[in-house]
Structure prediction request, 404 residues.
Amino acid sequence: MEEKWAHRADLAEAAINDRHARRVWGIPKTNLCVVCWPPTTRDNLFQHWHYWWQAHYLDCLVDAAHRRNTRLRQQRIKDTQRGIRIRNLRSWKHNRYYDDKAWLALAAHRAGLLRRQRFAKGLKALESDIMRGIDSLTGVLPWRTNETFYNVPTNGPAAIMMARIGELTQAKELTDWVFDNLIDDRGLVMDGIRLRMHGPEVVKDIHPYCQGVMIGACLEIAERLREQSGVDSHADFDSVEGAEQASPVMTYITQLRQLVQAVASEMATPAGVIDWQTGGGDGGLFKGILVRYLAEVAVRLPADTRLNRATKKLAARLVLASASSVWNHRLEVDGLPVFAADWTQDAKLPRNTGPVGSSIAGAVTSSQVPERDLSVQLSGWMLMEAAAKVAKVTERVDSEISPR
Prediction:
């Protein structure tokens, strides 16, 4: 199974790099993805390039390098980081949107670890810029500068970033704010809070990536708390002594488990396929981000309690069922996959006609055929990488979740 999903991830990678990857304005040792395929002339010139889409492209490149690290993959990661900086016209941190910057910080941090911190200087400036953006009134990050909208797509990835770089107190504050204010009656994470003249107004929209980033934040925080407290990752938390040791950890583990269950109940088919409709444009990335963090749960959540073992099994099922569905519904063009925007339906063939996505009020709309958008294809690649990661440890996961 591992080889099957690794091969499919390789094909997804090849499809993106073959159809979308280009030098930036012909400059050597640069790389970015055009935002649609077939591309328009303006897209080939990177008039549109969508900063946060490129961050997820970088994250997928790192995923592929983790599976099998090659010189070509290392060079493409390096060229992509340089391409982002050049196309951004200034440093990485030149951006009004804190969610965009948080996504790039996460991807660049992973790339830095893979490449032994060769881009640490630019990354540190980006992380510091995000930290300085925290609003003194609310204690969390706004969506963008001079904004009174505070949302999960910003604070979720920022919390993951902060936990990973050792800013644990701040990571907890962002995460706690979400769980204190933005969980609906189904147990799902809502979009955010907008401050109005008459008071705070909850934006109740539900998006798959909001669930994903909060699952990821809880997992990262729980791991850091374990490390700080010296709790053994294989400790028996069902015992009285273990529960007392782990009470701060278990706050976040419990939230994580409840979110995974809510996703399975509300966002997936009975067979476990994520079927929440997101279309193309920015929405094309939403399901891919969710399965990225479901895979992290399947692989990294300690199997120290019965509930944790059940959660690992459920997360793995959601990833693998979704990946199987998307693979079975793919199109093939020149031997490479085109993934569907709807993970339960056949992919539609992108064509060089009709409108492509455009930026409106800070968000990118879908192309007429969503499959034309880079975001949709990146989501499919993320899903294949997630499946490869889960499949690699399936035998170990199965042994951990079996009754003791």
The first helix runs from residue 2 to 19.
